Amino acid sequence: MRSKQSGVAMIVVLWMIMVMMTLAASLLYATRTETSMVDYARRSAQARAVADAAAHYTVLQLFLPNKDRELKLGGAPLLWEYEGSKV
């Protein structure tokens, strides 16, 4: 009788360990997914800010007198840096 009870107890313990491992794996997966989503949102916001800065800089250059412009009309690219990103 005692060996039967210890066998049942061992099965219950193994099941509990499996359940806890499944929960831990699910938590790990959810954490990695959330981290990826936050990183994507950060990079997306940064790219949007750089594009917005480029548009505002271009409009500013168009309103300046020709002699003060860094942006020359004619299609030549102007490379500059904004918040560590090259534009």
From TrEMBL:
<keyword id="KW-0812">Transmembrane</keyword>
<keyword id="KW-1133">Transmembrane helix</keyword>
<keyword id="KW-0472">Membrane</keyword>
<feature type="transmembrane region" description="Helical">
    <location>
        <begin position="7"/>
        <end position="30"/>
    </location>
</feature>
<protein>
    <submittedName>
        <fullName>General secretion pathway protein GspK</fullName>
    </submittedName>
</protein>
